[in-house]
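Homework help board

Subject: predicted structure for assignment chain

Our instructor gave us this sequence and asked us to write out the predicted structure in token form, then describe one feature. I got the tokens but I'm not sure how to describe them. Can anyone check?
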Amino acid sequence: MKKFLACFVVVLLSGVTAFAANDEREEDRVKDAGVVMKEILNIPDDIPQDLLDKAECVIVLPSVKKGAFGIGGSYGRGVMVCRSGEHYKGKWGAPALYALEGVSIGFQLGGEATDFVLLVMNPKGAESLLYSKVKLGADASAAAGPKGRTAEGATDIVMSAEILSYSRSKGLFAGVSLEGSTLRSDGSANQKLYGKELTAKEIIREGKVGIPPCASELVTLLDTKSPVNKSDPKSLE
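My token output:
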């Protein structure tokens, strides 16, 4: 009987330790997203300020690796942060964890760890990501984002895209096409981060949780760099 109780305690403690480790892993993912965003916004030829100011949401996926999809860990996973308020006019809010999947991404990575930043440029694109898995280029129009101080000279395709994507690998920062890849809410990861089952909509639009400490750097950075949504007011009605 004593041996049974001892084994039970060991198994119980192992489960608690594993859950804590998983929770810590999600927190690290959020922290890494803040570091990546800070570093990219400090690149001289970075994301155009006028595009960042018109974005309703930002998705940051740190250290995506070729062939790592579906394995778990932090590979192919990151966070989405949106402006708060009914019409995306408020401060940046709590992050929801998201997963990026798709064979086509692997060919572009070339085996190197790559950071991705995606700008969600209108409410339609944001809403689609909140409710279902989205295939870029099919369910939501997507394009490689332009670089520089402003988006002046960008093509009509870029300016009308719902999602603009950028990558950074080996110190090189560039717009990159992710068409054919999919984005989905990472429900199990959100549960681990917040300690309860939540949808992306409940986190981002309904404000059912506050901003966790691990997201303070990312959210503060966005509030500082782009405090006001400068999208066409008609698009936010």
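Reply (TA_rk): Your tokens look well-formed. For the description, you could write something like this. Confidence is low (pLDDT under 50) at residues 1-22, 68-74. That's the kind of observation they're looking for.
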